[in-house]
């Protein structure tokens, strides 16, 4: 599917993780970045007398100077639901859905994930949604599904992210795609770059699995769904039982049952090993299901060894053994480990980072890689379809205006909804990029500005994609 959103029944998350504290995160999560607080697009404060500003704007000032001064005086326009055209539904979860949208002004295509506020409150998922937003607003990488916009209305919270048209790896497994060793090796390396970047940002994903790895049209892998990710600082360790059981590392179960020092970034690399094994063989290295007791899984990892297919190359088996090492201290868990591996000696990491390595599996461009019933359910069975939201909200506002506030049926729910409305952080990566681009352009001297001839923009101003060097680690990074 394109951006298939899943909340698996076997994914578990319990409180108690160091760095997951709502109190600690809450102190900063709801405070917008400085650029957002001042209004995206505001890159400088007007300086000098007003007459000088007006003269530069109306006469021969340079295009850059006029644009900067205009931006400083123009209030920001916040992105909202009306700025997007809904095209079709492509996925759903227990309390949210995903659809393809097109931004009306730029005509760019995105995937929009939207979560019903009341359902999030009832399922105690608000904290996870806010944590995911906090993380996504601070990161960007070529092998992640990146956040572009976040906003809300009375009913829903919205995240607008990269649209990937190649489907997720779970979908392709269900379609009986036979992945070659070279293809799986490429996915492992691309996830290694993504995980290395996340580690530099102090982030443990905790839910790496085929369902959360999406392919673009060329076949490159991108990691998504930070709903149960966590942030840990230097010296901290995570302790919560969080993840999808068949892909969770042994130390997560051990920490939950026996206590101890907890776990760290190594758990995501174990998950990559499980995912790679499953892609090659069609089933996972351990027979683990959501119904398995945690205590039994601790015993399982100490008694059962992984069986590797005799048809696999020695290099692939060696790589999987290092990823599926039960002891995290001996497991491959960094980019340096991967680059030093003899089985990956031929990998051109710089080319890989720039997506110059051609994937062995390219999704069929002539079809949409998701379940087509999602669109039918949205149009026929959904009680609050997205395409009727504007009319529905207008009717609700009219009804609320005529209702006596003292007759509120659920004061607690309304208090929670009000808290979400107040604390939700609006985000606009497009404006942030535009501000950064403008700020990086040198301003000419006043004399040069007076002498310059006005020039019209030759094309619409759009944010450029970051170069590989700014988002991928170098060969020697950690």
List the keywords.
478 residues; alpha+beta; Transferase(Phosphotransferase), domain 1; two-stranded antiparallel sheet; 20 helices; 12 strands; 39% helix; disordered C terminus; serine/threonine-protein kinase; Prot_kinase_dom
Oligomer state of the chains in this structure? single chain
Mean pLDDT: 79
Count of helical segments?
20
Helix content: 25-40%
Count of β-strands: 12
Low-confidence segments, given as residue ranges, are: 1-9, 15-53, 68-72, 449-478
Q: What does the main sheet amount to?
A: 6 strands, antiparallel
- At CATH level 3, the topology of the domain at 169-353 is Transferase(Phosphotransferase), domain 1
Q: What Rg is obtained from the alpha carbons, in whole angstroms?
A: 25 Å
Beginning-to-end CA distance, first to last residue: 33 Å
Question: What is the CATH architecture descriptor of the domain at 169-353?
Answer: Orthogonal Bundle
Structural classification: alpha+beta
Shape: globular
Query: CATH superfamily assignment of the domain at 169-353?
Result: Transferase(Phosphotransferase) domain 1
CATH class of the domain at 169-353: Mainly Alpha
Q: Hey, roughly how much beta strand do the residues contain?
A: 5-15%
Molecular structure report:
Helix content is 39%, strand content 12%. It has 478 residues and is an alpha+beta fold. Helix 3 crosses helix 4, helix 9 crosses helix 11 (294-303) and helix 10 (266-281) packs antiparallel against helix 12. The two termini are 33 Å apart.
């Amino acid at each position: 599917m394109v951006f298939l959103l899943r909340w698996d029944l076997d994914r578990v998350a319990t409180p108690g993780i160091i760095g997951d504290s709502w109190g600690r995160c809450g102190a900063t999560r709801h405070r917008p970045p400085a650029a957002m607080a001042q209004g995206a697009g505001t890159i400088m404060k007007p300086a000098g007398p007003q007459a000088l500003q007006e003269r530069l704007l109306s006469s021969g000032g340079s295009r850059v100077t006029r644009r900067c001064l205009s931006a400083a005086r123009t209030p920001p326009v916040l992105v909202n639901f009306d700025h997007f055209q809904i095209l079709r539904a492509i996925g759903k979860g227990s309390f949210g859905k995903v659809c393809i949208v097109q931004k009306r002004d730029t005509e760019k295509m995105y995937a929009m994930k939207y979560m019903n506020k009341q359902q999030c409150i009832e399922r105690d998922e608000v904290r996870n949604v806010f944590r995911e937003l906090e993380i996504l607003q601070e990161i960007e990488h070529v092998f992640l599904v990146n956040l572009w916009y976040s906003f809300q209305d009375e009913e829903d919270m919205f995240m607008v992210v990269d649209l990937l048209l190649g489907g997720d790896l779970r979908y392709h497994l269900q379609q009986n795609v036979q992945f070659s060793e070279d293809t799986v090796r490429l996915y492992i390396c691309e996830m290694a770059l993504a995980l290395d970047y996340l580690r530099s940002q102090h982030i443990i994903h905790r839910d790496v699995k085929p369902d959360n790895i999406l392919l673009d049209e060329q076949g490159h892998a991108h990691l998504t769904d930070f709903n149960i990710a966590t942030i840990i600082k230097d010296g901290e360790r995570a302790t919560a039982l969080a993840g999808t059981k068949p892909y969770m590392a042994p130390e997560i179960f051990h920490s939950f049952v026996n206590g101890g020092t907890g776990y760290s970034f190594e758990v995501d690399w174990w998950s990559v090993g499980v995912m790679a094994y499953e892609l090659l063989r069609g089933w996972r290295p351990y027979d683990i299901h959501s119904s398995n007791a945690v205590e039994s899984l601790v015993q399982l990892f100490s008694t059962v060894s992984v069986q590797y297919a005799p048809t696999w190359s020695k290099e692939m088996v060696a790589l999987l053994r290092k990823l599926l090492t039960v002891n995290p201290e001996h497991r491959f868990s960094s980019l340096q480990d991967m680059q030093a591996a003899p089985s990956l000696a031929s990998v051109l990491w710089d080319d890989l980072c720039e997506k110059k390595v051609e994937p062995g599996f390219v999704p069929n461009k002539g079809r949409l890689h998701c379940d087509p019933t999602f669109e039918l359910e949205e149009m026929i069975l959904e009680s609050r379809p997205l395409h009727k939201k504007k009319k529905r909200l207008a009717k609700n506002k009219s009804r609320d205006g005529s209702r006596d506030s003292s007759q509120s049926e659920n004061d607690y729910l309304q208090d929670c909804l009000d808290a979400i409305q107040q604390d939700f952080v609006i985000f606009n990566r497009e404006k942030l990029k535009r501000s950064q681009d403008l700020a990086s352009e040198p301003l000419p001297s006043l004399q040069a500005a007076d002498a310059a001839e006005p020039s019209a923009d030759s094309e619409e101003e759009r944010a450029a994609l970051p170069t590989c060097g700014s988002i991928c680690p170098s060969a020697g990074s950690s």
